[in-house]
Amino acid sequence: MTFGTMVTDQELSRMAPIEQELARAFAAELGHASPAEMPVSANGAEAGIDLGLSDLGGMIRLDLEKLLDGRLLVQGTSGAGKSWTLRRILEQTHGLVQQIVIDPEGEFVSLAQHYDYPILDGSRLDSAALAIAAARAREHRLSALLDLSQIDREAQMQAVTAFVGALIAVPREHWHPVFVAIDEAHIFAPFGGAGLAATSVRQAATQTITDLMSRGRKRGLAGILATQRIARLAKSVSSEALNFLIGLNTLDIDIRRAAETIGWDASKAFDRLPILQPGDFVASGPAFSRAPATLRIGPVETRHIGARPDIVAPASISAKDAAGLLNLEDLHASSQADSEIRSETSLPVGIKTVRALIREPAFADAGRIWEVLAPLAPQGATVADLADYLSIDAARVASALALLDTYGAVDIDDVGDERAVRIAKGMIS
C-alpha cells in the first residue's frame, strides 16, 4: 500500500489503534488495498527486529524465534537504560507476538495506553481475579499490562505468583507464543530469598519466575527480564536465560557475574563495563545477529517515564509562606499527639488505666463524689442527696457514678424508689 511511501502490514500493526484506523481510511480513499487485508508474512517474525547500532557499524538484530527458545535477561545498574531497552523490544515486536508486561513501578503505562492494551490494576484485583485474567489473556491472545505500582512488595510478589502461575498453567490448546516482560525482576525472585516479605511469599514468587524461565519455553512463554544487579536475582532464574544484554556495571560482584554470562574474561569486563554509557549494552546469545557485540539501543516512540527529570530551579518563597504550604502547625500538632500515643504504649498497664481515668470528662465530679462517700463507708448516700450536697444536676452525678462503676469503685443499689451508692467493699481500707 502506498501513502507516498510503502506501508507494510507489519508496520501498520505497530501503529496505535487510532493510527491504524486513519491509515485504512486513507487507503480506502485512494483505492488501495489495506494491509490488514493482506496475509501476514511469517518471514517478518523470523527475521526479527532491529535492536540498535553496533559500535563497529551495522544494525544488531534480535531473532524472535531464538528469543522464544532462549529467553532474555537485561541487566545494568540504575540509569543504564534497562527500561528503555524493554520498551524498544516491546515497541518493535508489537503486532508480531502477544505481549504481557509486568510493571512494578508504573513505567510502562504509557506504552499500554499508546497501543490500547488493557491495564490490570494490581491494587483492585486480588490473586484469584488476576489468575482468571491471565488465563483469559492467553485464551484470547490479548496483550496486557499488569500495573503493580500501587501495592507493597509483599502484595506485588503475591500478585505475580498468581498471575504468572496462571499464564503457565493454561491448557495446551492455549500455548501460543507470548513475550512476558518483567521489569525489576529481582523484586519477584530475589537471590537467597532476600527481602521483607514473608518467607513463604518469597519462595512462591521465586519458584513461579523460575518456572516461567524453565517450563515456559515449551508453553510458548518467553521471559524477558530486567534487573539492576545479577547478584540480586535468584540463580535459578538467571541460569535459565541464554540471551543477555549487559549494560553499565560498577560493583565488582556484578562485573564478575556479567563477565561470566557474556563470555568475557574478568580484565576485559572490568575495563569495559564500568564505562558503558546509558543505552549501551553488550549483547550475548544466539538470538542476536552478532554476539558478543556492543550496541546502542535504538530510539523509542512511546514516552519513557524512567528518565530522570530535568534540573529546574525551585520557586523563590519566604520561610513563612513555605511553612504554610507544608501546613507545619498541623504537622506539629499531629506529631505531638502521635508522641503521646507512643509514650502511652510503653507505660505499665496500671499507669495507662489511671491516665485514661483522669482524661474522662466526668473525672472531676467522680472525685468529689468519692470524697463525700469515703467518710460514710461502709454506708452510702442516695443519688439525689449527692446531687443536692454537691450542687450539681442529677445527669452529672449519673455520669460520675457510671465512671466509678466502670472501674469497680462503687456499688449501686435500688432502695425503694431511690438509688443508693456506696464505696465498693474491695475499695475500703
UniProtKB/TrEMBL annotation:
Entry coiled-coil feature ranges: none
Helicase HerA central domain sequence ranges: 60-129
Name the record gives this protein: DUF87 domain-containing protein
